[in-house]
Amino acid sequence: DAEITQSPRHKITETGRQVTLACHQTWNHNNMFWYRQDLGHGLRLIHYSYGVHDTNKGEVSDGYSVSRSNTEDLPLTLESAASSQTSVYFCASSAGWGSEGYEQYFGPGTRLTVT
Amino acid sequence: GESVGLHLPTLSVQEGDNSIINCAYSNSASDYFIWYKQESGKGPQFIIDIRSNMDKRQGQRVTVLLNKTVKHLSLQIAATQPGDSAVYFCAENLEGGGFKTIFGAGTRLFVKA
User: Which residues of chain A have a pLDDT value below 70?
Assistant: First the structure.
């Protein structure tokens, strides 16, 4: 069965370190998204991609970067981790055509703690 | 700016009763709406969607109602079960906004046995 996976599921890192969160989907979806989820803020969009080599900034992109070298993967990098980036991170994908393109399939999340 | 929000942050219902979760959206140009369910420790999961040219859409035990006049969306769950306990998000897609989705803050549903 097709799926979307994230790794690691839990990560503790120190302020200033570079961290990369992995996202891998086997849906063959064009669109991929990264969100962070914090109490009181719901899901906020960090970066998104509509295809290979395409990346776009979301509403909370500062301090984060992504790259899309193939259809399956969209790794999220925190260049220099800050305590404000302690959060739960979700990756999602969608088909990218017609109304079905809006339905997003989410990974299980990565809980990141920056100390 | 555009926003998607919810009237009630928490809702507690008795098992077997019907649940209604409400949502307000602010952008009249939004043309597609989705309800997601998020169980503890998991990612959100698609429940049901509705396009702006519809007023009502039914799924299995769930119904979504859209009132474009007052920009209101609701999710009705029939015969609520303990497994329905979760956080429910409404979300909107903006016309011309590509495939980005804007999520509301969520409503937590508690089902009492």
Answer: 40, 97-101
Measured in angstroms, the CA of A28 and the nearest CA of chain B are apart by 16
Angle CA B91–A5–A100, to nearest 5:
40
Interface test with A, best of B37, B93, B103 (most A CBs within 10 A): B103
- Contact between A27 and A33 under an 8 Å Cβ cutoff? The reply is no
Residue A98, helix vs strand vs coil: coil
DSSP per residue, B69-95: TTTEEEEEESS--GGG-EEEEEEEEET
Which of B31, B46, B99, B108 to mutate to probe the A interface, most A CBs <10 Å? Answer: B99
Query: Would the pLDDT of B4 be above 80?
Result: no
The pLDDT assigned to B17 comes to 97
Q: Sort A89 into a burial class: Cβ within 10 Å, 0-12 / 13-18 / 19+.
A: buried
